[in-house]
Specification:
The protein contains 2 helices and no strands. 73% of the residues lie in helices and 0% in strands. It is an all-alpha fold. It has a domain of 40 residues. Helix 1 runs antiparallel to helix 2.
């Protein structure tokens, strides 16, 4: 609705970011082990990539969507 301010549901944003972190972490780990890589420093890189994906998810769901007036799918 135009003129109304959407309130950001930070709990929902956090849950979505956590899900994104887990999904990207598991996907990166599976790819790492399937390629036969050593998990030493690659493990750290995998965690960083997953954290960045979660951060992008949080910004998208908590800042960009509300700014565009996009309502959550549950609403």
């Amino acid at each position: 609705m135009k003129g109304e301010t959407m309130k950001t549901d930070w709990k929902d944003v956090g849950i979505r970011a956590l899900k994104t972190f887990i999904q990207s972490f598991v996907g990166a780990m599976v790819t790492l082990f399937a390629a036969g890589g050593e998990p030493g420093s690659a493990f750290t890189q995998t965690a960083i990539i997953s954290a960045l994906a979660a951060a992008v998810s949080a910004v998208w769901n908590g800042v960009i969507n509300p700014a565009l007036g996009v309502e959550p799918p549950d609403a």
